[in-house]
Design brief:
The protein is of the alpha/beta class. It is about 40% helix and about 15% strand. The chain has a five-stranded parallel β-sheet, sandwiched between helices. The mean pLDDT is about 90.
Length: about 150
């Protein structure tokens, strides 16, 4: 927990099954987490820029970003986030099915803080979410931001 408040996680994922698995895995946490979900890249950008329906949305402490998204690809979202001086400090964990070397290389070159390939096995998926949670929400010191 950061500064005694909830940790806000923005999950950018278009697969409802992966969203539900992540939600269930994070509910086991002893941390106060606020999981927000958008299902496409355009909404992700609107969320972090607090536009439209997201005008009052809390700034995420961490973003879990899929690469293969409708309306705006996750690669484009990542590049846009990391090119914006106001947003580039938000850690982005790429959580995707792609294990292509070109995607991994491009994601890190665009400023991804971490790249994780989603396992196909449900138990392994749960473990991966717990590892992300343990690392990013317990061990790592997240940057402060205006709420």
């Amino acid at each position: 927990m950061r500064d005694g408040r909830e940790i806000t996680v923005l999950m950018v994922e278009d697969d409802p099954g992966d969203v539900e698995l992540t939600r269930v895995s994070l509910e086991d946490a002893k941390l106060r987490l606020d999981l927000r979900v958008v299902d496409n890249g355009e909404d992700a950008i609107d969320y972090v820029r607090k536009r439209g329906q997201y005008a009052d949305a809390p700034t995420p402490d961490v973003i879990l970003l899929d690469l293969n998204l409708p309306r705006k690809d996750g690669r484009e979202v990542l590049a846009e986030l990391k090119q914006d001086p106001c947003l580039k400090g938000i850690p982005v964990v790429v959580l995707t099915t792609s294990d292509a070397a070109s995607d991994i290389t491009k994601a890190y070159a665009s400023g991804a803080n971490c790249y994780v390939t989603k396992p196909m096995d449900l138990d392994q998926f749960d473990k991966v979410v717990h590892w992300i949670q343990d690392f990013w929400f317990t061990i790592v010191k997240l940057p402060p931001h205006a709420t």
